[in-house]
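Form 12-C: Joint structure prediction
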Amino acid sequence: MLVENVTMLGHKDHGKSTLIGSILMLTNSVSNTRIEEAKRYSEKLGKSFEPAFILDSLEEEREGGLTIDSTRAEAKYKDLAFEFIDVPGHEELIKNMMSGASFAETAILLVSAKPGEGIRKQTKRHVFVAKMLGIENLIVAVNKMDTINYDENAYNKITKLIGKFLSNIKFDGIIRYVPISAYNGENIIRRSDKMKWYNGMPLLEELYRMTKGAGKKDKNKFNKLRAVVQGYIEDGNKKLISAKILNGKIEKGKITFFPGNIERYAKKIILKGRAVAKAGEGSSVAIELDKDIENPRGLVITKEGEEPIVANKLNALIFTLAKLTPSSKIVIRFLGNEVKCNKLSIIKHIDTTTGALSKKSLIEPLNAGILDLELESDIAFERYNILKSMGRFSFYIENKFGGIGIVE
Amino acid sequence: MIEQNLKELEERSIFILREARSKFKNIAALWSMGKDSTTMLALARKAFLGKVPFPVIHIDNGIDFPETYKFREELTKKWKLNLIVAKSEIKPEISGFSCCGANKTEALKKVMKQYKFDALIVSIRRDEHGVRAKERVFSPRDKNFRWNYKDQPAELWDDYSSKIENEGHVRIHPLLDWNEIDIWNYIKKEHIPVNPLYFSRNGFRYRSLGCTHCTVPLKSNAKTVDDIIKELKTTNVEERAGREQDKEREYVMQKLRALGYM
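Section 2 - Result
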C-alpha cells in the first residue's frame, strides 16, 4: 500500500494532535484499547475526552496539554495510507517540529478560527521552514469552526490572509483550504452539514486527491548518477565501498569520486547481498573497486564526465534557531560529513513571519537569511532545485543544532 | 494494520545499519530471539554481505521459554553469530517494572561497560507503543543510560547526526518505521526462521515475547506465518496486550525507557 507522509504544521493549541486523533478514530485506524486509555486519562485530568491523548503519550505532554516531540500515526483512506506526523507547535520546540516535518512532502497547516487565536507567528514560521524542508503540497485547515458558528465570512478572512502570506514567501506548490472542526469531526471525512456554503471536499478527500495528483508531476529531468559513500564493508580480506544512490543508476564500469576527481573502476555492484548489473535511486549498494580509496565517507560518486558542482563557496538560504552574526562559528553537516565554515557573510535578512527582506548585520533567531559561506574544504553538491538531497544541509553553532540551509 | 512497501523499508534499514557501522567503532545488537530482532539480524546479513559483523547480546534472566533457548542455539550456529549472554539476576519476589527496570537494564549496563560498546542496535518499532513512537533512529543515552526524551537531537531527512553524550552510548533503531505486519510479510518473503512460540498451540499464541513471568499468550488459531498475516489484517487487539509490564502503572513504558530500558 502506498503510504504518504503528511506533517502537521501550526501554532500551539490550534489543534494538530486533536486533528490526527480525530482522523484515527473516524477512519478506524486506532485500537479500542488506545481510545479507552485516552478517555480514561482525560477523565483522570478532569477534562472532556481529548483525542490528542491518542498521540501525546508522554506524561508531561498530557499533564501540560502540549506536544513535546514529534510522533507518527497511520490511517487508511480508500486505497492509500497516510502517515500523519504530529509536531509540537511551541516556538522553543521548533527543532522537534523540523525533525518530524523533514520526512514529509505534504503538510496540513492548522489555523484556529477561534476569536483571539487566528494566524500567529508559529503559523507562518512553520510554513516557511516546512517549505525549506521540502514540503510541496499544503492543505490549510481552518480549525475550531464550531467556536464561530461555522461562519463563512470569518473563514474567508483567514484564508485570504494566509493566501497573501503564502504568496509573499513564494510558496509555489499546490494549496487547498478546508474549514473544519477537528474536535467535533466536522468536514474531516464527510461533508459537514454545518458548512453548506463550503464547496470543496472534506479534508481527507482533498488530501487524497492531492497525493494522487502529485505522483503524476513531471519530475525534473535530472537523471545523472549521484551516490554518496557511507564507508567500507569488509568481505574477507576485500574492502568494498558502501554507498546510497541519491539519483540515477549505477552500473559496472568507470566511475568518478568528488571532490578530488578520483577515477576508479566499479568491478562489481552488490545489492542486498547479490551481484547486480545496475541499481537505481534509493538503493544502498556495495561496490567492489579496482583500487581502494582513503577516507571515502561523504564522497559523491558519478559517471565519467558527469561531475557535480565542486566548491568551497556557497550561496545559501538558511533558517536559524539562534542569532547568527558574521563571527558565528558554524559547522555544516552535509551528506553525512561535517565541514567547518571559515567565513560567513550576511547578504539579506528574511523575516519568517512576513517574508520581508532587509539588510541587517545579523540574522535574528527563528528567522532566515541569504548567506555567503566559505567552507574549510570543497564539497560536491547540486543546487536544491536540481536535486534536493544534494542541495540541503543542517548546521551547528558551537556544537548545538543551529538550523538548516539550502543551496540556491 | 497498514502494510508498507517492503523494498523501501528494507533499503532504509540497510542504510541505517551501515550508517551505524561506519559511524561507531564498537557496536553490538540486542537479540531477544523474538521476531523483530531476528528480522534485524536478517537485514544485517543483507547489509554486510551475508555476515552479522557485530556481537549480539541476549539479556538472559534464566526464565525465558525453553523454545527461546533452543532457537537461540540453533540460529547462533546457523548464522555464525557472535553471541554474548548477559546473565541478569532474577528474584522471584519482583516482577514487571522492577524486573525489567532493575534486572534487565542493570545486566545491559554491565555488559555494555565490560565490552565498551559505543552503540547498541535495538529493534523497537514505532507502532508498538506511543512512547517508542517518539524515538529517533539514532538516539543518545548518557552514561547512566538515561534517555532525555524532552530534548532529543534534531534528526532531519536521513541524516543521523546523534553523537555520544557524556560517555554514554547511542541506540540505533533500524526497524523504527516497520509495522508489526511488515515484519511478518518480510519473514514470509525472506524465509526468516522464527521462534515457534509465535504459532498457536491449543488455541493460544504469543504475539510479543518476553520472559515466562510477564508474558501471557493471546487467543489465536494462527499456526503458520500466513495465518498470522491474515490475523493481523483484521485484529483490533494491541500487539503488546500480553505484556504485563506495559500495564501495571501509568507511563510505565516511558519510565522504563527513560531509565535505559529498550
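Section 3 - Comments
Chain B touches chain A through 46 residues (CB under 8 Å). The domain at 6-179+248-258 of chain B is CATH 3.40.50.620 (Rossmann fold).
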